[in-house]
Amino acid sequence: MWRLSRGRLAPSRDVDAWGIDVMDPKHGPLPPALVALTVLTGVVDAVSYLRLGHVFVANMTGNVVFLGFGLAGATDVSITASLIAIGAFAVGAGIGGRLDVALGAHRGRLLAAGVAVKVILLTSAIVVAAVAGVTGGASQHALIVLLAASMGIQNSVARRLSVPDLTTTVLTLTITGLASDFTSRRTGSAFPTRRLISVVAMLAGAWLGGCLAIAVNIPTALGLALALAVVVGSRIWLLSKEPNTPWSVSAAK
Length: 253
Fold this sequence. Notes:
Layout: E1 2-5, E2 8-11, H1 30-51, H2 60-71, H3 79-103, H4 107-131, H5 138-161, H6 172-184, H7 190-215, H8 218-239
Antiparallel strand pairs: 1-2
C-alpha cells in the first residue's frame, strides 16, 4: 500500500492482505500487477483452448507437446494452430525485447508500455471475435495470432522485471518451488506465499475465462482480460512517475 510521507506518495513496508510485501524495497508495486496479469493469462488460455481449437496462446510448452501429438497423427489437435501460436508468441516476445532496449532501465515504464501494446492487441481480438466470430479458418487464426503475440509481449516483459515466482505465464517451476520449500521446511520468505498466490491466480483466471467462454461468448471473456490489462497498465503508468519507487533493474538485485 502507499502512504504519505512529507507530502509525497511513498511505498509502505506493510504487507498486504495476501501476505506479500507489496511495496518491498526491491520490487515496489510490481508483484500485485503481475498477479493480475497471471489472472489474465488464465482467462486468455481458457478462451484459446476451449474455443479456438485446443491451442494455447500463453503456454508454449503445451503447444510444443500438441505439435508432437499432431505429427504423431492425433486428429483432435491442429498442427497449423500450434505453429501459428508459437510463431506469434515469438514475435510478441521479440516486440517485448525491443521495448526492453528502449525502456528496460525503468521497470515501471517498461511494464506500462508492454501492457499498452497488449491492450491494443486484446482490443483488436475482441473486434475480430465480435465481427467475424469464430467459424474456423481466417478468423480463428487471426485471434490466435493477436492473443499469442500479446502473451509473448507479457512474458518477455515479466522476464525482464525480475520479480521472483511471478512469471505470469509459467507455473511448472512455481509449483516445484512450493513443493520443494514445503519438504525442505524453508520458511520465513514471502516467496512461498507469492508462489501459492500465482497458482491460485492462474486457476481463478482459467475458471473465469472458461465460464465466460462457455456460457457467454468470446468477446465477453476477452473483455475481462482487457479490463485487467487496462487497470494494470494505467496504475503502473501513474505510479511510474513517482521518483521514490524502486523501478530500476539494479534495484531488484
